[in-house]
Amino acid sequence: MSDPVAAKSGFLKMYMSSHPDTLVGYAKWYGKVTEPITSAEMSAIDTKSMTLTCTLKNGSKKEVVVVIDPPLSGYDDVKPRLLEMKALSQEGLGMIKSPKITAFHLPPRGINFALGFYSLVSYGIFAVSDDRSPFFAPAQFLHAYIPPTVFKILLSMWFGIHILEGLYTISLCRKHKASFPTTVRIMFSLPYDEFSNRSQVAYFAATVGIGFHVWQDLRRRIQDARIQSVMKVE
């Protein structure tokens, strides 16, 4: 099966030829080129990597392969990913600052999934299996095959994994200064630093309760903010 990005690499190479500074940033940040670069051009691209041919200050050429991780899902994923990679390279090289996230958001999908999980596990743990009411009839069936201890283990594993995910969420918050909306901060008369710390606790608690949906949503919003930041200066 042909690579959908490689099939249109001719257009992408021509388009990126008008963005040499972006390619130089890719080479320096992702390709780890430490020598002074005067120019760079894209010689190949597919869903997994791009190949850059760099012209160094001394006149020599250097070929660099930049891995695209995770791989592009298709051609439509090229533009947003290249813009994000541009922002990341410029952040890493100290050319721009990391975007700030100024609104706390709980993804509805995560809330619905968590409520369903808690309802099922709580029912499995606390349901009275010897009660003859219709409400507990499913519990009698469940407990015939799955003892309540299994549900307790599932709940413990849920929180254990989500605590680790919560630490990752805090790292995103610290890097991107995530906070609640400014109007809420003013309403409670909280200074920015104190409020930022409280928002990190809120993001951590949300991740422990809901899981990966929180940090995935936060990463998506960071990606959108990065894309907007680089598009403003293009």
From TrEMBL:
<protein>
    <recommendedName>
        <fullName>DUF2470 domain-containing protein</fullName>
    </recommendedName>
</protein>
<feature type="transmembrane region" description="Helical">
    <location>
        <begin position="110"/>
        <end position="129"/>
    </location>
</feature>
<feature type="domain" description="DUF2470">
    <location>
        <begin position="14"/>
        <end position="85"/>
    </location>
</feature>
<dbReference type="InterPro" id="IPR019595">
    <property type="entry name" value="DUF2470"/>
</dbReference>
<keyword id="KW-0472">Membrane</keyword>
<keyword id="KW-1133">Transmembrane helix</keyword>
<dbReference type="InterPro" id="IPR028110">
    <property type="entry name" value="TMEM254"/>
</dbReference>
<dbReference type="Pfam" id="PF10615">
    <property type="entry name" value="DUF2470"/>
</dbReference>
<dbReference type="Pfam" id="PF14934">
    <property type="entry name" value="TMEM254"/>
</dbReference>
<dbReference type="InterPro" id="IPR037119">
    <property type="entry name" value="Haem_oxidase_HugZ-like_sf"/>
</dbReference>
<feature type="transmembrane region" description="Helical">
    <location>
        <begin position="149"/>
        <end position="170"/>
    </location>
</feature>
<keyword id="KW-0812">Transmembrane</keyword>
